[in-house]
Amino acid sequence: MPNKIKLSIPQGMRDWLPGEAYRKRDLINKLLKQISLWGYEEINTPMLEYYQVLLPDENWGGAEQIYKLVERDGRILALRSEMTLPIARVVSSKLPAAYPWRLMYGGEVFRYEEIQTGRQREFSQVGVELIGAAGEAADSEIVALAIETLRAAGLDSFTVSLGHTGVLRGLLESLSWEDAQLDRVRALILEKDFVSLGSYLLSAGMKEKRIQHLVGFLTCQLSPNDLVKEGRDLPQGILEALADLQKIISFLKRYGYERYVQVDLSTLRSQEYYTGMVFEIYTPGIGYPIGGGGRYDQLLHNWGTACPATGFALGVERILLSLPQEEKAKKEKPLLLVGTDAGKVISKALQLRKEGKRVFTEIGELSRWEAEKLALSKGAVLSWCGGENADEA
Question: Which CATH architecture does the domain made up of 10-155+283-330 adopt?
Answer without folding.
Answer: 2-Layer Sandwich (3.30)
